[in-house]
Specification:
The protein is of the alpha/beta class and 855 residues long. Helix content is 49%, strand content 16%. α3 crosses α5 (80-112) and α4 (62-76) packs antiparallel against α5.
Length: 855
């Protein structure tokens, strides 16, 4: 067995020796060599496909491969011209898809580089930040609260280190970590000297050596066994169902047409090629490329508005989002926590003091301020704005106090305790959430310095905090305890004396009320989820003007069953005094109630809620664990940025659906009509190469759909992928297309068209009508009121012009076309005009009876 596989049983020096590293880290050159040797520190391969592989992927469809095989076979059977034409058209179609997807891939890679999660490592003895993917075995990593652990590591040094290993072990509570040597047989959850990829630091600091990276880590082995992949978005599931539906229709139709043509004694190879060409025409083969291009373009536009998309399919969910959950601090408020005052247990505020001695001999409220400063100035765990605000508010000379030990803040205790020594006395000073402080207090210190039992004072103390909360102030509790040892643990947080409150305020952001109203106008219901008291939360909500706030506290939520909560969350817009694990439960309940839920979080305790949400949203300044869990990262913690991102998400969603509508209207109708008429004509209505050319030309304008304008009504409300609506759309507009197709067939037969003339006329009408109807089905409004995007219009006109010219070029003979008499052209032109007019009117009636429902 490789000793490194049981690194927890080795000494620090042994592990450093086996990883060929030192306490001062690797050199930059050595790190580069190791990265080349071990590969990127990632659980999945970086599929930066080569240009060649991306090009070959355009031809991996079974239908396309069979078509290529049949075309090659026809070359050996002396039908060289048709085979070369077929192969050329397939190649051009593949090149178009390749060009689109290559551009999309490059754009997305550049965007993701903006929000990389980074690790702090020692290189050449100096600390520097590098992307997690570049961490290699032997790296010395420096860890602090909020950091992801970038590989499996051995702890070299630690200070009050606490790690959340729930993702790996399922253990709910954070685990304390420290250096040491453990027996070889120690189980994963008991390895207190080891850190693992996929976990994150809750509090404290550490220095550790990386032993394993990527798929060699414990988390990597699990993910390899389970082949974990991100859950599909609703839009992806909808597209999958749509694809299977078209596949079934196509297979049935193709088999029937092939059998019927063979039965009618037509050449087998020609019938086979005709059937395959029909399958290509029926299949929306550009759908993956169109979706990729739409999403990539949407991501680029969102990036310009400071919204970075990490996972492209999340854009569709972003556009469909109808419930948005957010924390309070920094999102609804300014995010700059400030100290308002210190208040003793009897409600008296502090007065200004000049020095520590003054504070010590004046009021109890001043002692609250002093003890809060002591606690904040000496903490070494979770970096937070509250401690920074305390340190800035009033500075004291605390040189006479010696810090002996610390129990860092965590999100279960919601307290931070530090043990001090001053001369011959020992003192534990604790501050934190008021309820959690009062839970460990047995006495209260009065204004005259006496201590009394807390039992009769609890209601009064809570009421004072409620009164402060109703004024918009958050109240922290400060307590102390005399102690007689040089170290302590969280079990010693008991029998403490409550000293008083520290009041904080964080005013609402300027303009936040208008932003929330805009979200509501977009059909999105904002909801606040906060750990603050109900009184503080309601005060902020009332200040920002959220209508009829209805609140649910964490303690009330705890008593509700999942089914009861699912009903309550719909009408609740303030969740206060919420524990970290309850955030995820709220998100899941909202989803079960039928909502598409977005959640904005930036803290250590937000990761599970971000994973649970349909759209996890974080900010660039968030801790690593939150940024890693998010689908979308805001470069500024500003809801105005979010509003613009939602609009772009809906534009992307709308343009993606347009291709689906186009593929299921004229294109589908044309191929269906051709399949039917082929059974009655003594010749094929179009040759296989002509069918592929028709498909290529009708696809060309649709490649520009990502640049199209989107009507305002499609942006104003969230919408979902609706397969039933798409099926109804396909039936109505496919049948309409077929009616005019058969009208074209009849007109050409009445004009005594020869086979070449029939095919030329049908080709012209098919391509031109399919191109023009794109301008009709792209909008619910009248074609005269909703202008198409510049590039879509130009591509449509270019396609029509090229289609009209082809029969007059030298290519006509190769393709089997010939110029048509003027009478033919006039009749075909009239049919196209009537078709567009009919499509406009059918669209108006269709949308008045068949609704594409918003959420």
């Amino acid at each position: 067995m490789n000793p490194q596989s049981t690194f927890w049983s080795l000494s620090k020096d042994q592990v450093l020796q086996q990883t060929h590293s030192t306490i001062s880290g690797l050199s930059r050159q050595d790190a580069r060599q190791r990265l080349s040797e071990y590969g990127a520190n990632s659980l999945k391969e970086k599929h930066k496909s080569s240009a060649l592989m991306l090009l070959l992927n355009q031809f991996k469809s079974p239908i396309i491969l069979i078509l290529i095989f049949a075309a090659v076979l026809s070359i050996f059977l002396q039908d060289v011209a048709d085979a070369i034409i077929i192969l050329t058209i397939v190649l051009i179609s593949g090149l178009l898809g390749f060009w689109q997807e290559q551009g999309a891939s490059n754009a997305v890679e550049k965007l993701l580089a903006l929000v990389q999660v980074k690790a702090t490592v020692l290189r050449d003895g100096q600390s520097q930040e590098i992307p997690n993917e570049e961490v290699v075995p032997g790296d010395i990593v420096l860890l602090s609260a909020g950091k992801n652990i970038p590989g499996d590591c051995l702890v070299l040094e630690s200070k009050d280190l606490s790690v959340d290993e729930a993702a790996l072990t399922g253990e709910t509570y954070p685990v304390d970590k420290l250096s040491g040597i453990l027996p070889t047989g120690t189980g994963l959850s008991q390895r207190t000297n080891s850190l693992y990829m996929g976990t994150n630091v809750i509090s404290g600091t550490a220095k550790a050596v990386v032993v394993h990276t990527g798929k060699e880590t414990e988390f990597g082995k699990v993910s390899e066994r389970l082949k974990l992949r991100p859950s599909e978005t609703e839009f992806e599931r909808g597209l999958g169902k749509f694809g299977y539906f078209l596949m079934e229709v196509t297979l049935i139709l193709v088999v029937l047409i092939f059998v019927a043509n063979v039965y009618l004694h037509r050449p087998v190879l020609e019938s086979f090629l005709f059937s395959l060409a029909l399958a290509v025409g029926l299949t929306p083969q550009l759908l993956p490329a169109i979706v990729s291009v739409n999403l990539a373009r949407g991501a680029k536009k969102m990036a310009k508005k400071q919204v970075i998309v990490k996972r492209l399919p999340a854009i569709e969910n972003f556009g469909s989002m109808n419930v948005f959950c957010t924390d309070k601090t920094g999102t609804l408020t300014e995010g700059e926590v400030k100290i308002h005052s210190a208040i003793d247990a009897e409600g008296q505020e502090s007065v200004g003091v000049a020095s520590l001695r003054d504070a010590a001999r004046t009021t109890q409220a001043n002692r609250v301020l002093l003890y809060a400063y002591l606690n904040a100035a000496c903490e070494s765990g979770y970096v937070n704005a509250i401690d920074a605000a305390i340190r800035e508010y009033k500075k004291f000379d605390i040189s006479s106090y010696q810090k002996l030990d610390e129990v860092p803040y965590d999100f279960n205790r919601k307290r931070l305790s530090i043990l001090f020594k001053q001369e011959s006395t020992h003192l534990i000073v604790t501050k934190g959430a008021l309820k959690n402080i009062l839970d460990v207090c047995s006495t209260v210190e009065t204004a005259d310095g006496k201590t009394i039992d807390i039992v009769d004072q609890r209601q009064k103390l809570h009421q004072q905090a409620e009164d402060l909360g109703s004024k918009g102030f958050r109240a922290l509790g400060v307590a102390y305890r005399d102690f007689n040892q040089d170290s302590f643990s969280k079990d010693d947080e008991t029998n403490m004396t409550f000293l008083g409150y520290l009041t904080l305020f964080d005013p609402p952001k300027a303009g936040i009320a208008d932003t929330l109203k805009e979200l509501q106008l977009l059909g999105i219901t904002p909801k606040m989820i906060t750990g603050d008291s109900k009184a503080v939360a309601m005060s902020i909500i009332q200040q920002i003007g959220l209508p009829e706030p209805k609140a649910l506290t964490g303690s009330e939520l705890e008593k509700l069953s999942d089914e009861a909560l699912m009903h309550r969350v719909q009408n609740t817009n303030v969740f206060a005094e919420v524990e970290p694990n309850q955030k995820e439960r709220i998100i899941i309940a909202l989803k079960k109630a039928g909502n598409v839920v977005g959640y904005l979080g930036d803290g250590i305790n937000d990761a599970s809620a971000l994973h649970a949400a349909d759209v996890g949203i974080s900010v660039e300044s968030a801790v690593d664990v939150a940024k890693e869990a998010a689908d979308i990262v805001l470069m500024a913690k500003d809801l105005n940025v979010l509003v613009e991102g939602v609009k772009e998400g809906r534009v992307t969603f709308a343009n993606t659906l347009k291709y689906v509508f186009m593929a299921t209207s004229a294109n589908f109708g044309n191929m269906f009509s051709m399949a039917g008429i082929s059974l009655f004509l003594p010749f094929l209505p179009l040759l296989p190469s002509q069918i592929l050319l028709t498909n290529l030309l009708t696809d060309f304008p649709e490649l520009t759909i990502a640049t199209d304008r989107v009507d305002k009504e499609l942006v104003n409300k969230p919408r979902r992928m609706d397969i039933k609506f798409i099926r109804n759309f396909m039936i109505v507009f496919g049948l309409l297309s077929s009616v005019f197709d058969y009208l074209t067939f009849g007109a050409l037969l009445l004009l005594n068209a020869q086979p070449e003339q029939f095919r030329t006329g049908w080709f012209l009408e098919s391509v031109i009508s399919a191109s023009l109807v794109v301008l009709v089905v792209r909008t619910r409004q009248s074609i005269l009121n909703s202008k198409p995007g510049k590039y879509l219009l130009m591509a449509t006109l270019a396609t029509i012009g090229l289609t009209i010219i082809i029969p007059w070029t030298p290519l006509a003979t190769l393709l089997g076309f010939q110029p048509l008499p003027l009478s033919f052209m006039l009749v075909l032109g009239a049919i196209v005009v009537f078709y567009i007019i009919a499509a406009e009117n059918v669209k108006r009636v269709f949308y008045s009876y068949v609704k594409f429902q918003p959420l």
